[in-house]
Hints:
By secondary structure, the protein is mainly α. The chain has one domain (31-310). Helix content is 77%, strand content 0%. It has helices spanning 4-28, 34-51, 56-83, 97-100, 105-130, 134-147, 161-182, 190-210, 212-217, 223-227, 229-232, 235-253, 258-279, 286-310. α13 (258-279) packs antiparallel against α14 (286-310). The longest helix is centred in the N-terminal third of the chain and has 28 residues, at 56-83.
Amino acid sequence: MCYFxxxxxxxxxxxxxxxxxxxxxxxxxxxxxxxxxxxxILGFSYAYSTTGEFSQLAFILTLISVxxxxxxxxxxxxxxxxxxxxxxxxxLGPKRMAASGKISPRSLLxxxxxxxxxxxxxxxxxxxIRGWLVIPIxxxxxxxxxxxxxxxIALAYRGLGEIFVFFFFGILxxxxxxxxxxxxxxxxxxxxxxxxGGLSCLLITINNLRDIDEDTQSEKRTLIVKLGWxxxxxxxxxxxxxxxxxTLVGIVKFELTMYHIIFFIPIAILGFMIAFKVxxxxxxxxxxxxxxxxxxxxxxxxxxxxxxxxx
Length: 311
């Protein structure tokens, strides 16, 4: 009997702190965060390779800003999909917090708006480092973090989600990070920004192929829904091919040795196997495994090019 109070305290700790924390980690979709971390690291790594200079403060502020924008986007996504009935009991992917009742819509809204305001702090500090152009870029990014699924913009509901991801988490995040460091927009790494954007698009495409039936039912007109499964299932292979055709530019430009290419080939093969398998896969929970592998693919791709720039 003397153990009951301790057990009770542990139970209270679990329900009051641990469980809510796990719910919030699911809400921010922590497994997707490499999509914002990798382009920042790559942009700063390339800038370092060209100038030999590295500002820790600028790097930290940029990383915090981009991470916050992705987290805000994910939280608004959870909230707006709930309001618009896009997350149903038939969902094949991880349960969304608002739709499952794990986190109240009001809490999601309050935290999303609080983080949005918080993002203004690193944004302002970055404007002091690099100039006024940071401000309109930041404001546009914050508006679109809501507008990805929020009305009246609702990019994801108009089949434009991939364009947002490609541009923001690819080209802008990569080239913009290098610009924050040096003040130069490097057209020489446009191929890299586009490749990273393509890798993020591959994540979204696998996600939306999995959810095509649910999205069709809820009238969420993603690009996958508009194309239909028979056509859309080939998108992963098209994206993979585009990524590695662009990567050839980097291989030639940086004169990669056979030693480098030998280490890079397994990364490309991993990406191909993911795309090939998904093309043949009907919507199912198996897509979740390929989503995780696709995130790993993005991470490995980023680590490889960071090594090329820095070492």
